[in-house]
Structure formats: structure tokens, C-alpha cells
Design brief:
mainly alpha, about 150 residues
């Protein structure tokens, strides 16, 4: 005998627990490929990592050194698919917050790893542009949902 648990909702019919689990697994499946792309793009070449960090090389103050438009645009574009994956299928603006927080967290992990590399540089500008890319991706996904007739709660 199979019992389904549901959460009551006044606005919509109850969703079976196994349907919520399937939806969550699809969400994870959508997020993994962009994360793999980010990992590959930000840690190549993998053989360059050292056993000690280079904290003196981290650029803590944004835009002190020249950052070309290519660097900024590339960082934003790299994280847009990640934000799309977070926002896809969503109908609430909470996904924007999640995209921003998870994009910032992922970017922080990447910048921390790059502090252990001789060929990569960790910067605050990367943190900001990466998180912005994730937020823009989620915003795009929510705009698409709204254009298709879905109600996006603010």
C-alpha cells in the first residue's frame, strides 16, 4: 500500500510528495551542467594549483586595476546559465534571491580556489560580476515564465 503525503494549500490542489521530489531532482539536474562549465572555465589548467594560497595576490578592492570589458562580460555570461537553471520553472521572485546567493557562494568558492593558483587571479570584481550573471539568468527565466502567462509573485 502506497500512501502519498500532501501539503494543504488554499490556492492550488495538494502536490504529492513524490511529485515534489521529482521536481527537486529535475532542478538539481538543471544546475549541475552550468556548475560543471563554471568549474572547468575557472580552474583550467587544473595542474597549476599549489599547496599554498596567494592571499597577497588577491585584488580586494574592485576596479583598482584595469578590467577590460571582455573580462566583465565573460564573467557575467559564464554565470547566466547557472541563474537560468535556478530560475527555470519558478514562479516566485524568491528565485532571484536564491540565484544571487548561490551565484555569490559559487563565485566565492571559485575565487578561493583561484587563490591557490599561479595562473588565475582572485578578485572582488569577479565576485560581483559572477553573482550579477546568476541574478540576470534567473531574472531572464522569470521573465520568460511571465511572458508565457505564468504569474510571478513579487
Amino acid at each position: 500500500m502506497h500512501a502519498e503525503t500532501t501539503l494543504p494549500s488554499a490556492a492550488s490542489p495538494p502536490i504529492p510528495a513524490n511529485a515534489r521530489l521529482r521536481a527537486a531532482s529535475w532542478s538539481v539536474a538543471r544546475v549541475v551542467p552550468p556548475l560543471m562549465l563554471i568549474l572547468l572555465a575557472t580552474t583550467w589548467p587544473i595542474t597549476d594549483f599549489q599547496d599554498h594560497p596567494h592571499w597577497d595576490e588577491v585584488e580586494w578592492i574592485p576596479f583598482v586595476h584595469y578590467f577590460g570589458p571582455f573580462d566583465v562580460v565573460a564573467n557575467v555570461v559564464l554565470f547566466v546559465p547557472f541563474g537560468l537553471a535556478i530560475g527555470w520553472g519558478g514562479t516566485t521572485s524568491r528565485r532571484l534571491v536564491w540565484a544571487l546567493v548561490l551565484g555569490l557562494g559559487c563565485s566565492l568558492a571559485v575565487e578561493f580556489a583561484q587563490a591557490y593558483s599561479h595562473n588565475r587571479s582572485a578578485t572582488v570584481v569577479d565576485l560581483v560580476t559572477n553573482a550579477t550573471g546568476a541574478w540576470l539568468g534567473a531574472r531572464w527565466a522569470l521573465a520568460r515564465a511571465r511572458a508565457r502567462g505564468g504569474q510571478v509573485a513579487e
